[in-house]
Specification:
By secondary structure, this protein is of the alpha+beta class. The chain contains five helices and eleven strands, in the order ββββββααβββααββα. A five-stranded antiparallel β-sheet has the order 5-6-7-8-9, with helices on one face. Helix 3 packs antiparallel against helix 4 (164-181) and helix 4 crosses helix 5. It is globular. It starts with a strand and ends in a 6-residue tail after the last helix.
């Protein structure tokens, strides 16, 4: 999510290959050079594909002079997005006979955002085909994975002037609505709050399902919905 103050990222940690094979894996990853750049990446889709992409990107950052292209050497966030997009496309092509098909078993989608010194904060949605789009005034936030249940809340309540605290509440409400409707989404939730022009990883953490604050948000949102429904004009039968 793009705010006037910076960027807010949140991801769940549930992966599944059927109802009897559910696991917890980290879907959010960070790279930083304090004072120069901070890049955050979130993944959805085939776990083998996303782990291969992250491993390749991470390996290149450890010896950027010998392993190109590296996120730590990208001159802009746009160029960083191209590196991630090319890496994703190549990994899919390697594991599939039709790497251009987004619907194949090896597909994956990535959200990448952050800031490199000399440029603004930027947020990108990267598709399995290797192309990508950037967030803007008309599309200030991106979702990947299971999105339909939580999206209406974001569309109705998002404001670019929101504080980080307000954005966190909004994202937790969106995730709460999603996990109640879809078993493929579940806690814990990882988050990263990046403040513009700090060029370092900001406040990060993990919110468990039984976290008192999350439970208060979940119960409070449910009660507020019931109160709002009862306050609407009655339908005359």
């Amino acid at each position: 999510m793009v705010l006037d103050r910076g960027l807010v990222f949140m991801s769940d940690t549930r992966t599944n290959a059927g109802l009897d094979n559910i696991s917890t894996f980290k879907k959010m990853h960070h790279w930083e050079e304090p004072g120069e750049r901070s890049i955050t990446l979130m993944t959805a889709g085939n776990l083998a594909t996303t782990q291969a992409v992250v491993s390749l990107l991470d390996e290149r950052t450890k010896a950027p002079d010998d392993r190109e292209p590296s996120l730590m050497a990208a001159p802009s966030m746009f160029q960083a997005a191209r590196i991630v997009a090319d890496t994703l496309q190549k990994v899919i092509q390697k594991h599939s006979r039709s790497g251009q098909e987004a619907s194949n078993a090896f597909n994956a989608t990535i959200i990448m955002g952050g800031q490199i010194k000399g440029g603004p904060t930027r947020l990108f949605l990267i598709y399995p085909e290797g192309n990508f789009i950037e967030a803007g005034d008309d599309t200030p936030f991106f979702q990947i994975g299971e999105m339909k249940y939580g999206r209406p809340i974001l569309v109705r309540a998002y404001e670019p002037t929101m504080s980080f605290d307000e954005a966190m509440r909004l994202l937790l409400v969106s995730f709460d609505s999603t996990l109640k409707a879809n078993l493929t989404v579940g806690a814990p939730f990882d988050f990263h709050v990046y403040e513009a022009d700090t060029f370092k990883i900001g406040h990060t953490g993990r919110i468990e399902f039984d976290d008192p604050y999350f439970q208060a948000i979940s119960v409070g949102w449910g009660d507020a919905l019931k109160t709002a429904l009862l306050s609407l004009p009655k339908y005359d039968l």
